[in-house]
Amino acid sequence: MNAPVRFFRERFGIDDTGLSRTLDVALEGAVDAADLFFEYATRDAVALEEGLVKSGDRHVTQGVGVRVQAGERQGYAHSDEISTESLRVAATTARAISAGSGPAAGVAVRGSGAPSRDLYPVGAAPTDVPIADKVALLSRIDARARALDPRVREVIASLVCQHRHVLIAASDGTFVADVQPLVRLSIQVIAEGPGGRREVARQGGGGRSEVARVLAQSFWETIVDEAVRLALLNLEAVPCPAGPMDVVLGPGWPGVLLHEAVGHGLEGDFVRKGTSAFAGRLGQRVAAPGVSVVDDGTLPGRRGSLNVDDEGTPTQRTSLIEDGILTGYLQDRLNARLLGVPPTGNGRRESYAHLPMPRMTNTFMLAGPDDPAEIVRGVARGLFAVNFSGGQVDITNGKFVFSASEAYRIENGRITAPVKGATLIGNGPDVLTRVSRIGFDLALDRGEGTCGKDGQAVPVGVGLPTVRLDGVTVGGTER
Fold this sequence. Notes:
Elements: H1 3-12, H2 16-26, E1 33-49, E2 52-70, E3 73-79, H3 84-98, H4 131-148, E4 152-170, E5 175-192, E6 198-207, H5 211-215, H6 217-235, E7 238-239, E8 243-249, H7 255-263, H8 268-272, E9 293-296, E10 317-322, E11 325-326, H9 333-339, E12 347-348, E13 357-358, E14 362-365, H10 372-377, E15 381-393, E16 399-411, E17 414-420, E18 423-427, H11 428-431, E19 435-438, E20 443-444, E21 449-453, E22 456-464, E23 467-475
Parallel strand pairs: 7-17, 8-15, 14-22
Antiparallel strand pairs: 1-2, 1-4, 2-3, 4-5, 5-6, 8-23, 9-10, 9-14, 10-11, 12-13, 15-16, 16-17, 16-18, 18-23, 19-23, 20-22, 21-22
Helix pairs in contact: 2-3, 4-6
């Protein structure tokens, strides 16, 4: 018996017989599938502001969710009590919601419950590291940021650690458990310049690793230095010009534009319902030649990676766009079954209290052949966007608006003044057709992404090489 399964059996008395009986109750009707999702997670967080650690919390989340599927209908019930009776009640309720009727089939739980790999082996759980060590880290961050430049007026920092145990049992014989660590460091710096002008910069990082990685000076110093640099840079920024122009996206975090503008439209629920701009376009050209996009949940230690998704399906590397041609979608089990395709390991949920749905893991564009410096030199007038702070997307047509938190003018092939107020305006299906150059410098983000969908938040990763987009509409503040 592997350790994650043993954890649930020893803490809650869960055994194969009890799991099978619960699934049998859920299957008392003309249903297509049923599954159980158990969760036990510890989480702690500390936050610093005005030179003091002003808040800290630690809490435990535990519970079980029972899902029953009948056609497109899903019945779901959950409880924060894990017991024989709560499982029976949840299974009965979920079955009633799904409104299936007909003969039932018996279920047997088999296997060791061990994932076929371990993408995030850790010794000590992130939440087992003494809070004093985490408080000391935030104090060092505050001291370094203020020492770098007297214009730094405020430092806000937080460290959030989570250790999550999950166990999934399903009517198709799935039986697997996993232990998922997660660490995230966030830093915000406020700098003040002449005339009282203030600018803010945010940076962060983390992943599925031990806290020791974040506590290492080489890790957090880089993030602090970058946050201070950006805050000071924005004090010098000039208004951004507006209008159509060529845009060069920097490597790494700008992949969030790809995630939002394109990735959500490739999720199986939007595709099945026909609400995605990419629905029904498999095999068609949706991007310029050379553009290849993948979603990969198998990258060791990455924030968006998982040994198995929240339905027990092993994650994988899924090709979404290959050389400009749409090749795949992201599927959970429900939408895969209804579409008659295999699941891709993208069924994800925020917690036991939520239904799973198709979600991204780590989504990025593959590297191309071009020298990033040459890409910039080829632009006569344009914008170099290095970081984004947020954006909005309409899934039905792919229209988006993204705000750049770090951007520069490009004039005659040279990066010149930093600009404020730059926004990129366009739509996902169109923007990928405007890619004319792709750099060889693919980079992933530092491990700070969180994706929201239907009120649920899950950790994700993004990535991009340097990319040139031709004739993109830029919204600015220069008149």
